[in-house]
Write a structure and sequence with these properties.
8 helices; 46 strands; copper ion binding; about 45% strand; Nitrous-oxide reductase; Copper_CuA; oxidoreductase; about 675 residues; metal-binding
């Protein structure tokens, strides 16, 4: 009953805060805010902000301080705007051990680091629903690799990086039986359900991902994580709740214990055990999908094995730090000394010391074990507690000046506090429930500071209404002074969770502006109009097509028959920045193509009935964009219409009808 009362009071507080708009919101923005966020025509934003898309499965790229959306990067969901997941080249990117999965729930992001600082090479993203981690190449802003994670469900505690991008880690949110265990009763949770931590190695030269090893841990719900840095490099820290190991009505049954845990993982020691042969090989199935920039094609392969270390058997790789209560965020300050846990139901913020943790482990200052893992004493590792910071602490970011900023979901505010003294320095309302925070470089050894963005979950009264669902909200604060100042309130794409950001110069210096035609190794590339052609191979018709301002070659095709599989392989001949061409054909059941300069993309089309089918460019490319069109004549199945194609009424290489299975 006490637990029910606590939850009821928290819920009442949350509803009250959401329902009552704070007074004075119209004057909350400082007088010079508009000047500080204005980016004049021809000028650029100073910061790239990469924002998770939540339930839309994509990533949005936002400029700061303007708040303008610059691009949507498709990652885990099909994207009709450019054909991602629809084109023959990109379909393999969404393959999994469960088959083709065209959607996911994308929560967290991590920019690659060198020596604990953002290096501008890659962005990593998690898929929460069907566990996967993706890598986005920031020279092209394209998803180039996705790896599925076996023995996992609810890949929420992911993807977080070590300070030299040695590993990206992923912890399972839902404890589950090991893959392949078969039909297991839910009531056997405590006996058969485990939590797995995956350490995905990143190649130093090519950035290629592989699951180097997994750690089998107790059946907790792993929530969030961050790597140590500086003195704590070699360690990883995961928040975990449901130490009750409940499997039903978790809002009550997983909120019984006064403290859950932060799990500290010595991954350097785990590496030693791996090299010493202490891991067991486990038979699993998981997909590894890669996109080759030279061929502009993706491939998917199913891998069959993973190496697993047991935290229960190898007692010096994992340690549990008690943390009140139902911890969510787990954040490490820039020095690597302080570990901040944020209990969703806690009325304080605990700050733990890495040095004290090392001493407690050395002294075996433990209060017991949980499933074979030592539990260090709370007071032995505690640096201090931030008292009465607010209600519902979730996430903490850092400004590099000794200050921490924590989001308070229930009391709808951001609280600034001093890490050394644990004293609250400032607080500012976000008006509605705030989730994640982001400071550019805020999880690195050297934060850039200046800006803080709060990503809010509920936005009543912030924007014009749009039916039952309102847009998500982001709020930009100036944190360069002693007091936080609200500068801008702007809408976001999807439901943002975590975000990452860095100075624009880190990313603009490496941008690829177009693909060189001579480097295009796509097997169906057509590098000039003279090479364009249409070839029948049985019931498959391959159209080797070019696009250039402002026509396709060929632009008239006859002899396609109902039921044929038509593959339009379109090569954009442009060699100029920002001149993509689109391609669409009437009746296509999938999407358009958006082909970058020098790139080749393929659209599969199966006509279902005879007729005349226009095709056209979908991306406005020139004054004569409307004239960039053509026709495909589709004849009945079994007809004798010859396969011919032309440009400017010049017919080329007419093919006579061929029988099924023949090539001409």
């Amino acid at each position: 009953m006490k637990t029910y009362k606590k939850i009821g009071l928290a819920a009442f507080a949350a509803v009250s805060i959401v329902a009552c708009k704070p007074k004075g919101t119209q004057t909350a923005v400082s007088g010079d805010a508009a000047e500080k966020v204005y980016v004049a025509p021809g000028k650029h934003d100073e910061v790239y902000n990469f924002v998770s898309g939540g339930f839309n499965g994509q990533i949005s790229v936002v400029g700061l301080p303007s708040g303008r959306t610059l691009k949507i990067v498709p990652v885990f969901s099909v994207h009709p705007e450019n054909g991602y997941g629809f084109s023959e080249e990109t379909k393999p990117m969404l393959e999994t051990s469960h088959g083709f999965v065209p959607w996911d729930d994308q929560h967290h992001l991590a920019l690659s680091q060198t020596n604990g600082e953002i290096d501008g090479r890659y962005l990593f993203a998690n898929a929460n629903n069907t566990p996967r981690v993706a890598k986005i190449d920031l020279t092209t802003f394209k998803t180039t690799e996705i790896i599925e994670i076996p023995n996992s469900a609810g890949n929420h505690s992911s993807p977080f990086l070590t300070e030299n991008t040695e590993y990206v880690v992923a912890g399972t949110r839902f404890a589950v039986p090991v893959d392949g265990q078969g039909d297991v009763p839910i009531e056997s949770f405590k006996e058969n359900f485990k939590g797995y931590l995956s350490f995905i190695g990143i190649g130093k030269e090519d950035g290629k991902m592989d699951i180097t090893f997994q750690i089998e841990a107790p059946g907790f719900n792993f929530d969030l994580s961050h790597a140590g840095k500086g003195k704590s490099h070699g360690w990883f820290f995961f928040s975990c709740y449901n130490s009750e190991q409940a499997n039903t009505l978790l809002e009550v049954n997983a909120s019984q214990n006064e403290k859950d845990f932060i799990m500290a993982v010595n991954w350097k020691k785990a590496e030693e055990y791996l090299k010493a042969g202490k891991a067991k090989k486990m038979a699993v199935e998981y997909a590894h999908n890669t996109f080759d920039e030279s061929t502009q094609m993706a491939k998917s392969e199913i891998l069959k094995e993973v190496s697993v270390l047991s935290a229960k058997e190898l007692k010096d790789i994992c340690y549990l730090i008690p943390c009140p209560k139902s911890p969510h965020g787990c954040d490490i300050d820039p020095t690597g000394e302080y570990i901040i846990g944020s209990g969703k139901l806690a009325a304080l913020i605990p700050v733990f010391s890495f040095d004290k943790l090392m001493k407690a482990i050395a002294d075996k200052n433990f209060s017991g074990e949980f499933d074979g893992i030592p539990i260090v004493k709370y007071d032995a590792v505690l640096h201090g507690e931030v008292q009465k910071p607010g209600l519902g602490p979730l996430h903490t970011e850092f400004d590099g000046k000794g200050n921490a900023y924590t989001s308070m979901f229930v009391s709808s505010e951001v609280v600034k506090w001093d890490i050394a003294t644990c004293k609250v320095l400032d607080r500012t309302p976000t008006f509605y429930s705030v989730g994640h925070l982001m400071i550019p470089g805020g999880d690195t050894k050297n934060p850039y500071g200046k800006y803080l963005v709060a990503y809010n979950k509920i936005t009543k009264d912030r924007y014009l209404p749009t039916g039952p669902e309102l847009t998500q909200s982001a709020q930009l604060f100036d944190i360069s002074g002693d007091k936080m100042k609200l500068l801008l309130d702007f809408p976001t794409i999807g439901e943002p969770h975590y975000a990452q950001a860095g100075p624009a110069a880190l990313f603009t210096k490496n941008q690829i502006k177009f693909y060189k035609l001579e480097d295009n190794k796509h097997p169906y590339a057509t590098k000039g109009e003279a090479e364009s052609k249409v070839v029948r191979e049985g019931n498959k018709v391959h159209v080797y097509m070019t696009s250039i301002r402002s026509h396709f070659a060929p632009d008239n095709i006859e002899g396609v028959k109902v039921g044929d599989e038509v593959y339009f392989h379109v090569t954009n001949l442009e060699q100029d920045w920002d001149v993509p061409h689109g391609f669409a054909v009437k009746g296509a059941q999938n999407a358009e193509l958006l082909i970058m300069p020098g790139e080749t993309c393929t659209l599969k089309w199966v006509p279902l009935k005879p007729g005349m089918y226009p095709m056209y460019c979908t991306d406005f490319c020139s004054a004569l964009h409307q004239e960039m069109q053509g026709y495909v004549r589709v004849s009945p199945a079994g007809s004798n219409t010859p396969l011919i194609y032309s440009l400017n009424n010049k017919k080329d290489n007419a093919q006579s009808p061929v029988k099924q299975g023949e090539t001409k």
